[in-house]
Predict the structure of Zinc-binding dehydrogenase family oxidoreductase.
Amino acid sequence: MATKLMQAVQYNSYGEGVSGLKQLAITQLIGIQKGALHALYFPRKFPHIPCTDVAGEVVEVGPQPGLDIGERTLKYGGGLSEFAVASESLTVARPSEVSTAEASGLPIAGLTARNALTEIGGAKLDGTGEPKNALVTSASGGVGVFAVQLAKLGNNHVTATCGARNIDFVKGLGADEVLDYKTPEGASLKSPSGRKYDAVINFTAGIPWSTFDPNLSENGIVVDLATGLSSMLTFELKKLTFSKKQLVPYFVTVKREGLEHLAQLVKDGKLKTIIDSKFPLNKAEYAWAKSIDGHATGKIIVEQ
Ligand SMILES: NC(=O)c1ccc[n+]([C@@H]2O[C@H](COP(=O)([O-])OP(=O)(O)OC[C@H]3O[C@@H](n4cnc5c(N)ncnc54)[C@H](OP(=O)(O)O)[C@@H]3O)[C@@H](O)[C@H]2O)c1
């Protein structure tokens, strides 16, 4: 095992925001060179190197078989550091057509969109399922851009919400109709063509059930990725009352199979990682601040 020093970004506790991030040199373990960012998972131990999504090249391997030195990979879990430890079970080969930056934007965001659509939303992404009317909220964000593209791969009709500046961009991703969230129509989530939604893939915090309800089809379901207390309560209430319309809080589970599927779609030109901006590792604080600000269009990438 190598014992060189490497550059890394760590934080020591919750709640300090960007000012809690520290640039420092720490002992390098073993792993893959990287360039990545998605943030927000809750560590149980400190100091913690944040960020969950990593892509790079294997530079050293442990005793277990599975990865080869020089192999291009993308993986879930790692951090803002020059090298990251890759668990073989959460790492997949990265096709040469998929750049490090494109791959590093995929894991959490791509899997969240994919799994929310398929596991709860009931959509098929290969066009073999019955087309559904889907609504994707915050469709210009890191996760929403994948949800729109993947829903369209399944031939679904997609209504999307985003800010005015991104309406044409989201239409370019394939959305059939787009609402500006700052207008009364956008806030109501009402489909301009009068459709009722079979599935809402919700990435916007704080939308009450009373807004979703009139827009849902008879068996419509809200897959809530921006889960809070009120969505937990709505979930329980809908279950208790045997409501046909449902709201399901959803947390992504990372599996290799999903990562492989996403990498293949990008390789085949069927899915794009939209990159909002890139920052060098020694400016990771700026990336973090931009992510927290909540106004990115696509993914924020940190590179070394
Ligand atoms: N449950 C899970 O497993 C899971 C996994 C990943 C993410 N998430 C959650 O998914 C949510 C979205 O994450 P993200 O990374 O995609 O967010 P993000 O990248 O920060 O989203 C930013 C985008 O959303 C737009 N936006 C902001 N408020 C909006 C609104 N009210 N309606 C429509 N668009 C709005 C912004 O447009 P403007 O700049 O024009 O305002 C911006 O383009 C977060 O709550 C995150 O925690 C959940």
Remarks:
- Confidence is low (pLDDT under 50) at residues 34-40.
- The first helix runs from residue 100 to 104.
- The pocket of NAP is lined by residues 40, 108, 112, 137-138, 140-144, 161-163, 165-166, 181, 203-205, 225-226, 250-252, 294-297 (CB under 6 Å).
